[in-house]
Amino acid sequence: MSQPDTNHLIAAVDARMAMATRLLEDLRARTPDADGAGVTRPSYGAGEQIGHDLMRAAAGDIGLEVTTDVAGNLYATLPGHNRAAPRWISGSHFDSVPNGGNFDGAAGTVAALTAVAALKDLGIRPRQDMTAMAIRAEECSSWFTGQHGGHLGSRAALGLLQPSELDTAIHVASGATLGESIDAAGFNAGTVRHGPAPLSAQNVAGFAELHIEQGPVLISAGVPAGIVTGIRGTIRARNAHCLGAYSHSGAVPQELRQDAVLATAELIHRVDEHCAALRQRGHDVVFAVGRLHTDSKVDSLSKVPGETTFTIDLRSQEEDVLAQLHALLGTLSVEIGQSRNVRFDLGHLALADPTVMAPAFRARLQDGATALGIKAPPVPCGAGHDAAEFVRAGIPTCMIFVRNTGESHNPMEHMDVADFRDGLLLLTWFLAAMAKAQG
User: Fold this and answer.
1) Percentage of the chain surpassing pLDDT 90?
2) What is the C-alpha separation between 402 and 213, in angstroms, rounded?
3) Does residue 285 surpass a pLDDT of 60?
4) What is the CATH number of the domain that holds 295?
5) How far apart, in whole angstroms, are the C-alpha atoms of residue 395 and residue 429?
6) pLDDT in tens, 363-409
7) 439 lies in a domain?
């Protein structure tokens, strides 16, 4: 892209910044958490729908074509010369974790819509359709328990959702299945179940997602944006249990107890030790237990705890490390179970392979950063994103991170407007280059 073209693109993006900031402000105002500190937008719930309604209205004002698929994903499209050619898609999600921040996901959906609007304002008619997408249920792990593989909206759109997940993913508040939740939101779980999927490697040329960074790497580097190299794969146990026996905490000798808490603590400690040893050898791995509790209806100060419920979240960019950890969980659960006379039931272990962003797209993004004068170094991604599902579907994909000074999944999440502008400029430049636009 020539420098005059780049200058015109910058002017078009700047002219649309007021729309972008207004959308983010409106979204924050309309989806507060109950305590007012953060935002709460449940997957397939009212808060998520508010985001979709705002985007639909804005896309109509811009003059884009607006459609919705059977899972509720929203598409705002600038038509191309060849409507049959594989389209370009950029987008993210509107749902949030409970009491989360306003920009996780929403910054990417608003950026995609703004970038497509800027291309339209420039009088560009691309060769293929350019679409901004609002994706459902990315944060579904906070809202749906049971057996499912996460990222329910993008996986439904891409044909990666197993039909059984419509029945085994259960909403934590309503108790409804995923299929029932999709139908209740006004969409069609039956068509999701039986297909065909609306998106595939045959009809999508590429996918680009802008997202706030959810860690401190860009802050540490002192730069506003980053070009993502890849996304860690995961091993997740959403409903793990340790089953022992309740007994008197003073009367039963230690060696005769079936203490579920101590057994669970040992499992966690030994997995953590193994992860630390892997990191010392230069491997990439992180580990967390986000939930760990006994049964408040039964537990007591004077009881040996007979049951725990907990989660496991292991992540790595290395497939062999994930395979090793998967085997370790099985070995340790049996070994510790036998030594402490308890039984572990880790439930369904949801596995997601690491994903690598398309090298050619990363190089093109770097060209754009140079042309725009934006510092955007390569950065790894530790969190899961819808972009990973597009990679798994065989669609070339890239991601842009925007600096976030308050980390993520909490009310302190923060994104400076200037940083968002830099990320938006880079996304718009990239989409303009990828579209092979004809004026």
Assistant:
1) 87
2) 6
3) yes
4) 3.30.70.360
5) 20
6) 999 999 999 999 999 998 878 799 999 999 999 999 999 999 887 88
7) no
Could you tell me if residue 373 is inside a domain? yes
pLDDT single digits (tens) 84-117: 999 999 999 999 999 999 999 999 999 999 999 9
Residue with tokens 């890849």: 230
Detail the DSSP E strand segments found in 290-417. Answer: 292-293, 303-304, 307-316, 343-345, 349-352, 355-356, 378-381, 397-402
DSSP string covering 313-331, please?
EEEES-HHHHHHHHHHHHH
Same domain, 259 and 374: no
Task: Report yes or no on 294 lying in a domain.
Answer: yes
Q: Are residues 227 and 237 in the same domain?
A: no
Final residue before a domain boundary, out of 311, 334, 352: 352
For residues 410-438, one letter each, b for 16 or more C-beta atoms within 10 angstroms of the residue's C-beta and e for the rest, the string is ebebebeeebbbbbbbbbbbbbbbbbebe
DSSP string, 342-395: -EEE---EEEE--EE--HHHHHHHHHHHHHHT----EEEE-S--HHHHHHHTT-
Task: Please indicate, yes or no, whether residues 340 and 363 belong to a single structural domain of this protein.
Answer: no
Query: Using an 8 Å Cβ cutoff, are 387 and 358 in contact?
Result: no
Q: Are 74 and 91 in contact (CB under 8 A)?
A: no
Tokens (6 digits) for 324: 């090793």
Query: CA 34, 38, 43: angle at the middle one, nearest 5?
Result: 80
Structural domain span for residue 288? 233-352
Cross-strand partners of 90: 132, 208
Q: Are 260 and 308 in contact (CB under 8 A)?
A: yes
d(CA 43, CA 63): 28
Reduced to 3 states (helix: H, G, I; strand: E, B; else coil), residue 295 is coil
Region of 123 (left: φ > 0; alpha: ψ -120 to 50; beta: rest) is: left
Coil, strand, or helix at residue 202? Answer: coil
CA nearest 401: which of 94, 112, 108? 108
User: What one-character DSSP code corresponds to residue 100?
Assistant: B
Residue 272 token pair: 């953590």
> Tokens 């079936």 appear where?
258
Residue 216 Cα to chain centre, angstroms:
17
Q: How far is CA 141 from CA 43, 344, 429, in A?
A: 9, 22, 33
Buried b (16+ CB within 10 A) or exposed e, 192-225: bbeeebbbeeebbbbbbbbbbbbbebbeeeebbb
Question: CA 369, CA 423: separation in Å to the nearest integer?
Answer: 9
